[in-house]
Amino acid sequence: MIGLAFSGLFRASLVRRIMSTIAANLQAVNARIEAACNAAGRDPRGVRLVAVSKTFAPEAIREAARAGQRDFGENYAQEGAEKIHALDDAGLVWHYIGPIQSNKTAVIARDFDWVHTVDRDKIAQRLSDARDAHRPPLQVCIQVNVSGEASKSGVAPDAVAPLARRVAGLPRLALRGLMAIPEPTSDASLTRRRFAELRAVMERLVRDGLALDTLSMGMSADFEAAIAEGATVVRVGTAIFGDRSR
Ligand SMILES: *Cc1c(COP(=O)(O)O)cnc(C)c1O
Fold this sequence. Notes:
By secondary structure, the protein is an alpha/beta fold.
C-alpha cells in the first residue's frame, strides 16, 4: 500500500514537472509575441497563437489549455480527429495545417474549425460539400507557394486570385486569408522577404474587393519576422511542446 502511494505521488510530481515546462514555454512565447508586436507598433491582440501539437499526446494539450491556450494546430487528419474527440469538453479551437489528401477532406471538414492549407479547387469543393450545415462554415486560408521551385505545396502567387474568388463563393467555407511556409534557409532576410511577399499578395486581393483578415505565417524559428511583416496567426510547435520525435 505504502509503496503504491509513493509511486503514485512520484508519478504525479514528475508529470507536473514535465507539464509545467509547457506552461513556462507558453508564457515565454507569448512574451516574445508581445515584444515583436511592440517593436512593430502592433497591438498584440492582433496576433493569434496557434499551438502546433502534432505528435504530442492529449495530456500535453490539456496542460497548455490549463495555461490559457485555446488554439491548436494539427498536421495529420486522423491523429487530429482523435485528439479533438478526446478533448471535446475543453472548448478548444482546432486548426488543420497539414497537406490535404482528398480522401481526408470529410474528416477534416467534420472535426476542425480552421483549415490553413487549401491550395486547389477540388479540395475546396470537397471540404465545402462535407461541412455539416449545422456548424459554422469552415474558416479557410489558401496556402501560397512563396518559394517558387523550392516547395511543392501551395498555389503560385499569380494563381491565388482566381482560386480565392472560387473559394469565397463556396457555401460552407469562409475564406479568411493566406498561409505560407517559406523554404528552410539560414538566410533570415530571405525568409522575411517571403513573408512580405505573402502580405503583398493579400493586399492585392483586399484591394480587389475580397474581405480577408488573416495572414498565417511564422513558426518557432521565425515568428518575430512574420509579425514584423503583418502575421495575424503564428503557428508555433517546438518552442511550446519541445522537440518532436517524428
Ligand atoms: C510543424 C508545423 C509548424 C510548427 O513548427 P515549429 O517549428 O515546431 O514551430 C507550423 N506550421 C506548420 C504548417 C507545421 O507543419
